[in-house]
Structure formats: structure tokens, C-alpha cells
Amino acid sequence: MAASIYAENNILHQTGVELVCLLYTESITRISLAIDAFENDRPAERAAAVGDAMAIVVELQTSLDLEAGGQIAKDLARLYDYIQDRLITGHAEQDRKSFEQARQVLETLLEGWHECRASLHETESAAIEEAVSAGDGAPRAWTL
């Protein structure tokens, strides 16, 4: 119970970019579980893992704002369609390669989001440094 509350609290305090990274990571993990279940002849586990991965990708897709996001959002929507197709094909045809293709696309996207997150952190750090250095250096008199 406490672990569940901790996990929920952790998710609620993430930025949008961090949430996307978290969803990509979890989807990649689920696809890896599906591949493992496929290789070890555990069809029920494979089905559950594929279902979880699909649910995450659908969540990512439905969160896209195609108007505000422009071409990037449209490209992501097409990639999410492709990932879903690979997951369905992998499961229906018991094709490991299809699962690997879906995972590879997600890993590539995750790498891009990690770069985006790092860039945002650098921008935030530079803004904080600039604000601090813009001060006149005089001590502040605080009153309550």
C-alpha cells in the first residue's frame, strides 16, 4: 500500500517530459517481457505484456495535440500507429522481429526525449544562474 502511494505521488510530481520518458520506459519494459514470454512459451504472460504496452502507446497517442503540435505531433501519431501494428503483428503471428521493431522505435524516441529533457534542464539552470547573478549583491533584509 505504501509503495503504491509513493509511486502515485512520484508520478504526480513529474514534468510532462519526464512522464513521457516514464511511459516510454515502461512500454519498452513490457515489450521486453513479451519477448521473454514468447521465447519461453508463456502465451498468457505474452498477451498481458503486449496488452500493457499497447495501452501505454494508446495513452501516448491520445495525449497528442495534433493542432498545437504541428508536424511533430503528426509524425509521432504515425510512429505510434506503426508501434501498435508491430505489437499486434508480433502477438498474432508470434513474430519476435515485430516486437523488436516496436521496441527499437520506442528506444529511439526515448533517446530523443532524454535529449529534450537535458536541454530543458540546461535552459532552466542558465536562467537560474542569470537571475542570481543579476542581483546587486547586497544582503537582503527579510521580515515576517
Write the layout of secondary structure elements.
Layout: H1 2-12, H2 16-39, H3 43-62, H4 66-92, H5 96-133
Envelope shape:
elongated
The overall number of domains is 1
Low-confidence stretches: 5-12
Number of strands: 0
Instruction: Please tell me the CATH architecture by its name.
Output: Up-down Bundle
From the 3D structure, determine the CATH topology.
Answer: Four Helix Bundle (Hemerythrin (Met), subunit A)
Structure description:
- The protein is mainly alpha-helical.
- The chain contains 5 helices and no strands.
- It has helices at 2-12, 16-39, 43-62, 66-92, 96-133.
- Helix 2 packs antiparallel against helix 3, helix 2 (16-39) packs antiparallel against helix 5 (96-133) and helix 3 (43-62) packs antiparallel against helix 4 (66-92).
- The two termini are 40 Å apart.
Short description:
By secondary structure, the protein is mainly α. It is 83% helix and 0% strand.
Task: Supply database-style keywords.
0% strand; mainly alpha; 83% helix; 5 helices; 144 residues; Four Helix Bundle (Hemerythrin (Met), subunit A)
